[in-house]
Design a protein that fits this description.
- It is a single chain.
- This protein is α+β, with helices and mostly antiparallel strands.
- It has two domains: 135 residues, no CATH class; 147 residues, no CATH class.
- It contains seven helices and 13 strands.
- Helix 2 packs antiparallel against helix 3.
- The radius of gyration is 27 Å and the shape is extended.
- The protein binds calcium ion.
- Calcium ion (CA) binds next to loops.
- The site of calcium ion has 7 residues, from loops.
Length: 294
């Protein structure tokens, strides 16, 4: 896996050289084949690029700051533009522009595959451009859900039918679970614990990937978060991990204001031998499965 370099003159009215990274060198090759309208993706540049890919890999292995590499490439860049690259063509003109309506009529991209939304910086410009080839973040619905707010409203909430919900922020650096939200950059989990008088209804769950929380607000004021996580099964030890068994849990919380109306955990195990999911089993716990408090 390497990151070929494209010297991209399109975004560079001042005459310098900007860099872009592609995930696969074939991407560049395909673009060359697809259209002669993009002469700066020229073969000689490609060959030179390979040299710099190697340099990037070396630099990355040495964990040097990326900026060093970028600066060195900026210095070397102009030399790469020699070697037969014909830079003529409308799209390479610094004054080249296009209205969003024109781009929409083209389906958001050129025949050569160039993504006009990327080219003109329309992704994330504050206006929803539904014609863009890739999802425009501006079109995503406002995320009104906030975990801190949820925590303040629902920590210590009574879970009807079960007990009490206790939440905390687990700070992976201090290894403490507290009411304090760890600062940016610290890996953290949101730990949920269900305290119940019935041992079978006690539960502990950690939200490891906050970004996978799905929030929905319904017209009648009911709010819901859903979370699902799959992980390698560790218990019972032995066959479970050796044959690649998986476990997953699904958490669903329905709440209204500071009241939880439903709290549900469902756990399952996956057995690759039969390609089936079945109720979760763990010799350490005696959890009623699914755990439904409502
Ligand atoms: Ca946009």
């Amino acid at each position: 896996m390497y990151s070929p370099v494209i010297l991209d003159k399109r975004k560079n009215p001042a005459g310098g050289v900007l860099l872009q990274y592609c995930s696969d060198i074939r991407q560049i090759e395909n673009q060359i084949e697809a259209s002669q309208k993009w002469p700066f993706f020229c073969i000689s540049l490609l060959q030179d690029a390979e040299r710099f890919i190697n340099q990037i890999e070396r630099e990355q292995q040495m964990k040097k700051p990326m900026m060093t590499i970028m600066v060195s490439m900026l210095l070397l860049g102009p030399g790469l533009l020699t070697g037969g690259c014909d830079l003529a063509g409308d799209e390479t003109d610094p004054g080249f522009s296009m209205s969003k309506d024109e781009a929409r009529a083209m389906g958001g991209k050129a025949d050569s595959g160039i993504d006009w939304c990327e080219y003109f910086g329309w992704y994330g410009d504050g206006i929803c451009d539904e014609f863009c080839p890739l999802p425009d973040p501006d079109c995503e619905p406002e995320q009104s859900f906030n975990l801190t707010d949820f925590y303040q409203r629902l920590n210590q909430a009574v879970l009807p039918g079960c007990g009490t919900l206790t939440m905390c922020w687990y700070n992976s650096e201090t290894r403490e679970c507290t009411d304090e939200e760890p600062p940016e950059g610290i890996r953290r989990t949101i730990d949920f614990k269900v305290d119940s008088e019935e041992p079978a209804k006690r539960a502990y769950m950690a939200i490891n990937f906050e970004e996978n929380l799905v929030y929905e607000e319904f017209a009648d004021g009911l709010e819901q978060i859903k979370y699902e996580e799959t992980y390698p099964k560790s218990m019972p030890p032995g066959p479970a991990s050796e044959i690649g068994m998986l476990s997953r849990y699904q958490l669903t919380i329905d709440f209204r204001g500071d009241t939880i109306e439903r709290f549900e955990i469902y756990q399952e195990d996956y057995d690759p031998r039969s390609d089936t999911w079945s109720p979760w089993f763990d010799i350490r716990y005696n959890l009623e499965n699914p755990l439904i408090c409502e």
